[in-house]
Amino acid sequence: MEDTVPAGNNNSENATNAININTFSCPIHCPATFIPSWQQIKVAFGILFVLSVSATMMFMLVITFAPSNLKFHITDASLTKFNLTANNTLDYKLEANITSRNPNKNVEIYYKTITAVARYKDNEFARVNLSSFDQGHKNTTFLHVVFEGKGLIKLKPEQLFEYNQETRVGIYNDLAVDLDFLVRYKFVTHTSYSYNPPMVKCRRLSLSLISNGNSSSIPSFHVSRCRTRFFFINR
User: Which DSSP string do the residues of 18-72 spell out, in sequence order?
Assistant: First the structure.
């Protein structure tokens, strides 16, 4: 008598085998493990080396040929009138000598317009226009600025209190001379368009009032460096 295997058990065994086959066999599109050849590794390192050398050369070119920033200093300044009346009118006379230094050997500067602005405690009280000029390579140009006249100035209460104190002492603090330019520059053979560089700010000046033209008792002025952001960009 033959043994009979129940149909149900046979089907279960076939299903188990099918599960095992599907579990351990890889589908047709299963990605193979990529192992680069020695030649491919050499090509990759070669590309990285070329990029590194190119970046280094570009950095050296920028360091060598990029223009250096201009330098401005107030070398001397004097204050002969500085009288504030009750109606907020300031009677003033302020003079300043300023140097402009172009340290570059391959850049020329063409100053098309120059406006000097006088401030007291961050309040503008006068502005004058200076003559245009061209500044060559490695050149220092001397500017003389004279602010003289009467103008309105509105001081805050604490600033007015400081003004009265400074008047009693005869020394005025927080004076400033700013320079506003419209320029062009020539870099080697390239000439730029006209633009407004960041303002040159000569701030926190302290000046003694010269009375009746007598400056013998006035302390000597110390050269003051002006703050200059990168000059070769439009603000």
Answer: HHHHHHHSPPTTPPPPP---HHHHHHHHHHHHHHHHHHHHHHHHHHHHSPPPPEE
155 phi-psi bin (left φ>0, alpha ψ -120 to 50, beta other): beta
How far apart are alpha carbons 152 and 156 in whole angstroms? 13
Q: What's phi and psi for 61, nearest 5 deg?
A: -65, -40
pTM, 2 dp = 0.73
For residue 60 the two structure tokens come to 């050296």
Per the listing, tokens 């100035």 go with: 153
Q: Report the C-alpha gap between 153 and 30 in whole angstroms.
A: 82
- φ and ψ at 90, to 5 degrees? -105, 125
Q: What value does the mean pLDDT take over residues 10-14?
A: 49
Q: What distance in Å separates the CA atoms of residue 51 and residue 56, rounded to the nearest whole number?
A: 9
Distances (CA, A) of 101 to 24, 69, 71, 104: 79, 9, 5, 9
Dump pLDDT digits (tens) for 92-149.
Answer: 999 999 999 999 999 999 999 999 999 999 999 999 999 999 999 999 999 999 999 9
The four Cα atoms 150, 154, 157, 163 give a dihedral, to 10 degrees, of: -30
User: In whole angstroms, how far apart are CA 21 and each of 9, 29, 87?
Assistant: 19, 16, 101
Are 127 and 115 spatial neighbours (Cβ–Cβ below 8 Å)? yes
Q: Which two tokens stand for residue 116?
A: 């000097």
Q: Which residues does residue 44 pair with via DSSP β-bridges, in sequence order?
A: none
